[in-house]
Automatic annotation (TrEMBL):
Gene3D superfamilies: 3.40.50.20, ATP-grasp fold, B domain. Residues 117-317 form the ATP-grasp domain. Transmembrane segments: none annotated. SMART domains: GARS_A (SM01209). It comes from the Bacteria. It comes from Paenibacillus sp. BIHB 4019. SUPFAM superfamilies: Glutathione synthetase ATP-binding domain-like (SSF56059). One of its GO terms (molecular function) is ATP binding. The keyword Kinase does not apply. Pfam families: ATP-grasp_4 (PF13535), LAL_C2 (PF18603). This is Carboxylate--amine ligase. Coiled coil: none annotated.
Length: 411
């Protein structure tokens, strides 16, 4: 009988829970390296792991020493980052253990937007004009040089946290005051006190879900995005594959591949965000992991039958990888957002999300008595519905129509 492979994940959470599930379903022995023994319950993966190792997942040495002092030292077959914030740290620990990993420098660049922009610039990858700043005075000088409107963002955060669209000097001053007080993000990871001032790129936003083998795409598909009205950048809906600008898909994918090569990612999954501007595709950011927001866990599987999480576990185990589409449909997700700030008196229309040929599943987290506000980041979204159909247009319209039937009544 073949002995199960032992796979460790660093802090499974959000999209990373799908990694643990994929490995568990593949018959692997799943070890979760966590900052708290409560995390399986917190992030919803109770019952799909075999053991826990507690460590400070913000510290490379702590993670390494926790593994070294465990019963699994010298026995791990793979060590996989299951949260963005620990990706570079996990890469370094995997290197020390002699395990397959994303190159450390590539992981570091994918986690730090300023380092990525520098790489794009060095390799001629089309992206946004930018300047790295620390103070309001530096930000104001950068904005004058680049020209308003601009975007102000942290260098090492996710989920649109404290990303600002800024039209003028007064807005910039207010935003810098807020962003300068933003010290800690998810799981107590520190926010770097360096920020990016970037040109605002107008145009349709996409992401590319891509799996590389030796720097070439073994699989790639373009996901269409709808984002909230400015001044925020909250993702409201995703459609896979895209229903718009289908004639530009090859160019969008090639731009994404060039960005991955620039930062040094040559193999495995990535989620690359792109704006289609008047000048052509421009890179927003690169993430060296499967797309979150239910894109890889649901839309990709429902539409094309491709499971990036399963494929990634096989990749880290140096096993054959299958990322070939087994079906040709389309899937979409639409999110529920508050139209205004207030207290919820009731939530109506939920019966529309229960049954229907197009509905895969739905989840509404808001309830009576909740204080809600206009969404400024992904954390402020209140629920979603996932749909599947024969065409991207049908899947997208079904999701948008269904979520519009959910009625938030305010007190």
């Amino acid at each position: 009988m073949t002995k199960p492979k032992i796979v460790a994940f660093v802090e499974p959470s959000f999209y990373g829970v799908s990694f643990a599930r994929a490995a568990f379903q593949q018959g692997c022995t799943v070890i979760s390296i966590v900052s708290s023994v409560d995390n399986p319950r917190t992030y919803g993966y109770e019952g799909i792991y075999h053991d826990l190792i507690v460590a400070d997942i913000r510290d490379e040495e702590s993670v390494y020493e926790a593994i070294r002092s465990s019963a699994y030292f010298g026995k791990l077959d793979a060590l996989i980052p299951a949260t963005d914030y620990a990706s570079h740290l996990t890469a370094k620990v995997a290197e020390r253990l002699g395990l397959r990993s994303v190159p450390y420098e590539a992981a570091l660049k994918s986690r730090n937007k300023d380092l990525a922009r520098e790489a794009y610039e060095a390799f001629g990858v089309p992206s946004a004009k930018y300047r790295k700043v620390r103070t309001y005075e530096e930000a104001e000088a950068a904005a004058r040089e680049i020209g308003y409107p601009i975007v102000l963002k942290p260098t090492n955060c996710a989920s649109s946290q404290n990303v600002y669209f800024i039209s003028g000097q007064d807005e910039l001053k207010d935003a810098m005051a807020i962003i300068s007080d933003f010290k800690v993000t998810y799981m107590d990871f520190k926010v770097r006190e360096e920020y990016l001032v970037e040109e605002y790129l107008d145009g349709q936003e996409f992401s590319v879900e891509i799996f590389l083998e030796n720097s070439e795409p073994a699989f790639a598909v373009v996901t269409e995005k709808i984002t909230s009205p400015l001044p925020y950048f909250v993702e409201v809906a995703h459609t896979l594959p895209t229903s718009v600008h289908t004639d530009k898909q090859a160019e969008i994918i090639e731009t994404a591949v060039s960005a991955l090569r620039a930062i040094g990612i040559t193999d495995g999954p990535s989620h690359v965000e792109v704006k289609l501007s008047e000048r052509g595709p421009r890179i927003i950011e690169v993430n060296g992991r499967p797309g979150g927001d239910n894109i890889s866990s649901d839309l990709l599987v429902q539409a094309l039958g491709v499971d990036f999480f399963e494929a990634t576990v096989h990749y880290y185990l140096a096993e054959p990888v299958n990322v070939h589409a087994s079906r040709s449909r389309a899937a979409a997700i639409a999110y529920l957002l508050a139209e205004k700030d207030g207290t919820v008196a009731s939530v109506g229309g939920l019966e529309h999300l229960q049954t229907g040929d197009a509905i895969v599943r739905s989840h509404i987290s808001v309830q009576q008595g909740d204080q809600i506000s206009v969404a400024k980041s992904s954390d402020d979204r209140l629920g979603y519905v996932i749909t599947v159909a024969d065409t991207p247009q049908e899947a997208k319209q079904a999701a948008l129509d269904l979520i519009s039937k959910v009625e938030l009544v305010y007190q």
